[in-house]
Structures are given as C-alpha cells and as structure tokens.
C-alpha cells in the first residue's frame, strides 16, 4: 500500500542531554521487566511556535528512576531532545486534524525518538535494553495545561 505523507514534518531532531547510570540490584535473580515497570517516569516539555503556527519547536525531557527519593536499583536514565516541526498547509485540513498535528503528534514523535535513544544507551547494559512503556499523551498535555494555569 502506498504511504501518504503527513502535513507534519520533522525538520530537525537533536539530542541535547543524555545520562545513564547503573546501580547493581541486591540480587542477581531479578525479573528485569518487573523492575523496569516499577521505575517512576517523569516527562516534561516546552512547546514554542511561530505566530502563524507553521513551525513548532519542542523540547522534551524524560527522567526514568532519576529522582533521589524514588531511586531504585538498576538503571537511572535522563534524556532530553529538541525538535523542530513544520506543517504544510498546501491542502485543506479541518481544525481537529490541525490541532492534532500541532499538539499530539509532535510530542508523540519526540517521546518515540527519545524512547529509541533510551533503548540504545541501555541495550548493552547489564539488565538489557530499557523500553519506555506507552505514554498517555492526552494526560501529559492536560497536566501541562493545568501546570501553566497554576503558575
């Protein structure tokens, strides 16, 4: 089946920061998958766009098991990336699609790029590759809006 390209284009992606540590678990007989799912995950992001919303800049930071108060043995991971996106509006699109392309899709693409980087940097680690679980993008956006309203 022939693929149709999205009006949303990722123009540029840069890895801005990465940090990986390993603290050996107390027991060598450990279920890696269970340990990985117990890790706390924090995601923060900042979106900036041009006045005409044709170009979007998004910086996304993911911390896995990286807060001292929650630190579990195993991996501690921090990655941050920046992306620039544009929307080609040469064809008509409804507002629902445009909203999706401006908010949900760029954040989802950034998280997926950073997920791949986290897997790559941990893949040769003692516990094998860490694959970030699926993330509820709607909840992340809702939490960000609430955070901004509170400030």
UniProtKB/TrEMBL annotation:
The domain of life is Bacteria
- Its protein name is Preprotein translocase subunit SecB
